[in-house]
Design a protein that fits this description.
The complex is a heterodimer. Chain A is mainly alpha-helical. Helix content of chain A is 80%, strand content 0%. Chain B is globular, with a radius of gyration of 18 Å. The chains are: A mainly alpha, B alpha/beta. The complex binds adenosine-5'-triphosphate (ATP) and magnesium ion (MG).
């Protein structure tokens, strides 16, 4: 946006930040978290040495060594890339199809009636049994895994987007109508921004389910990527490496969901602030 | 000012019914007829639920009539038009857009290029006393300032007719009075045809040339009050006996109507 020569008044920054006191409390929380993680690691190390072994429950130090070895192993990065490919393509497809479909279905009751049974079906039934079917339909390769990620993540995003569109204030639509605003502009300037908070929540939930879909596909049926490594190390009783790979998978999930949560906060910014102020 | 006596709005026998949720029919407007001259300031006052907002939405072309017709400049109203702009009771601002973007929104809808609409929006923002707040978001403004944005947005399209639905109804008494004065000044300088819904009797007398008093169930025009206070007006007029008499007259009429 161009700055139209502001002189006196400055708009307040659009951020839900707090005063300094809040900052110091946050440092405290951080400290407590770090201490608790350290204690957990210590207990893990101790019990691994005392009761476990590298064939069963390994001490954290062995896992750390295994993790370091994997991280310098080119094969590992190739497998990781295979896994991430399915996740990113599937999630991209979810976003590219889910948001437009949700926006349309939110506006057109006919479309919503049409897709609702399917959405409810995929949201309420276990989706894992579909993976072998995808394998048969799509063959081996990227496609069945992308399909799995998609079918896990897609419904929740559509449902959330529909909810967002449905919640657009009637008064704003009437305002737009009174000024003769075209439906395209109503979509871009009102319906889309109004549904962004709900879309953000949908993205976070969809990302979590996408990670589950990714793991399920690789672990149950299509033995590639991280799933393949997990199977390899568990069948050879290589516990340190098994733990290392599982940690990597958990980290991927955590990072993606965290990233989406940040995005959600950004998308929902206007709403949080508006709710916070009284009128 | 040559057209000062021209009838710009003609409402003839307008009836509007709504389907109630219980399956009955509610007559919100019954055989309404009145006309508004060019640059006239007309207020509509009446008890809650008597169809005032419905009348405004019909005038704005947002909902169709069931019977009768509305003509503006001799053309029947079939929908919203660039000749009319509405100021909403709840402001109806886009929370995610700045003051500037809110005011420029109807201009964007008209395909006016960005630079031009921002300049035009900037002008009307200055007109309503919000210069310097262009990049603020609505939630950071007081209610009075938010309604100034609503007013600026309506003025931005330079409509011949301004339709206002209790524009100051959501504001505290002090803010309301200040905005009444500012609106009065604006109107006296720029002259528009105004139809304003209100249930503030003093506001109606202070601002209007004519007051339509509505009666409820079914909504209809019960009485017309001519406000023959000289113009330009300012705060002093509130202390005259003529002003007090008019307010009293409106009050008595409303009393009689609600007792009936
Ligand atoms: N879309 C609608 N569907 C059904 N009934 C409606 C609708 N709009 C208004 N009504 C009814 O019509 C009547 C008149 O409503 P309207 O909003 O015009 O009243 P009003 O005079 O503006 O009231 P207030 O002073 O409370 O704003 C009310 O009884 C209302 O319930
Ligand atoms: Mg009303």
């Amino acid at each position: 946006m161009t700055d139209p020569g502001r002189t006196t008044a400055r708009p307040p920054v659009l951020r839900a930040g707090g005063p300094a006191a809040k900052g110091s409390r946050q440092t405290q929380y951080r400290l407590v978290q770090i201490v608790s993680i350290m204690m957990l690691l210590a207990v893990w190390e101790f019990s691994g040495r005392r009761f476990g072994s590298n064939l069963t429950f390994p001490p954290v130090s062995s896992v750390a060594v295994a993790l370091a070895q994997r991280l310098v192993d080119p094969e590992f990065w190739g497998f990781l890339w295979t896994t991430l490919q399915a996740l990113f393509v599937g999630l991209g497809l979810t976003i590219g199809v889910g948001i437009p479909l949700g926006l349309v279905a939110g506006r057109l009751t006919t479309v919503q009636r049409l897709i609702n049974p399917y959405l409810n079906f995929f949201l309420s039934t276990p989706t894992s049994p579909l993976v072998p079917i995808f394998l048969i339909i799509f063959g081996i390769g990227l496609a069945p895994r992308v399909a799995t990620v998609f079918i896990f993540a897609f419904p929740i995003l559509v449902v959330n987007t529909i909810t967002g569109v449905r919640a657009v204030p009637k008064s704003l639509l009437e305002m737009a109508a009174s000024f003769g605003v075209s439906s395209g502009l109503v979509f871009r300037r009102i319906i889309f921004p109004a549904s962004l908070p709900a879309i953000g929540a949908g993205l976070r939930l969809a990302a979590g389910r996408a990670v589950v879909g990714m793991v399920v596909a690789e672990l149950i049926v299509i033995s590639v990527g991280m799933g393949r490594l997990i199977q390899r190390y568990s069948s050879s009783f290589d516990s340190p490496n098994l733990f290392a790979v599982v940690i990597v998978v958990l980290a991927i999930g955590l990072l993606i969901v965290r990233g989406m949560a940040v995005l959600e906060r950004r998308l929902g910014q206007w709403k949080q602030i508006t709710n916070g102020s009284s009128r | 000012m040559e057209a000062d006596n021209e009838r710009i709005i003609e409402v003839a026998g307008v009836t509007k019914r709504f389907q109630t949720t219980e399956g009955g029919v509610l007559t919100a407007l019954q055989d309404i007829s009145f006309s508004v001259r060019s640059n006239e300031y007309v207020s509509v006052i009446g008890p809650s639920g008597c169809g005032k907002t419905t009348l405004l939405r019909v005038l704005g072309g947002l909902i169709p009539t069931d019977e009768g017709e509305i003509q503006i400049h001799g053309r029947p109203v079939t929908g919203p038009g660039p000749d009319r702009a509405i100021v909403f009771q709840d402001f109806a601002l886009l929370p995610w857009a700045t003051v500037l973007d809110n005011v420029a929104f109807p201009l964007e809808a008209r395909g006016i290029p960005r630079a031009e609409r921002q300049q035009r929006a900037g002008e009307v923002i200055g007109l309503v006393g919000l210069a310097g707040f262009e990049n603020y978001y609505p939630h950071t403004l007081s209610g009075g300032m938010q309604q100034r944005v609503g007013l600026a947005r309506a003025l931005a399209v330079d409509p011949e007719t301004l339709l206002m639905d209790e524009p100051f109804g959501a504001l505290d008494a002090q803010t309301r009075r200040r905005l009444q004065n500012e609106l009065l000044n604006l109107w006296q300088r720029y002259r528009k045809t105004v139809v304003m819904i209100t249930h503030d009797m003093e506001e109606a007398v202070y601002l209007s040339d004519r007051i339509l008093i509505f009666a409820p169930r079914p909504g209809r025009v019960a009485e017309e009050v001519l406000v023959d206070l000289s113009r330009p007006r300012d705060e002093h007029v509130r202390r005259t006996t003529a002003f007090a008499d008019l307010v009293e007259h409106v009050w008595e009429t409303l009393q009689r109507l609600t007792i009936e």
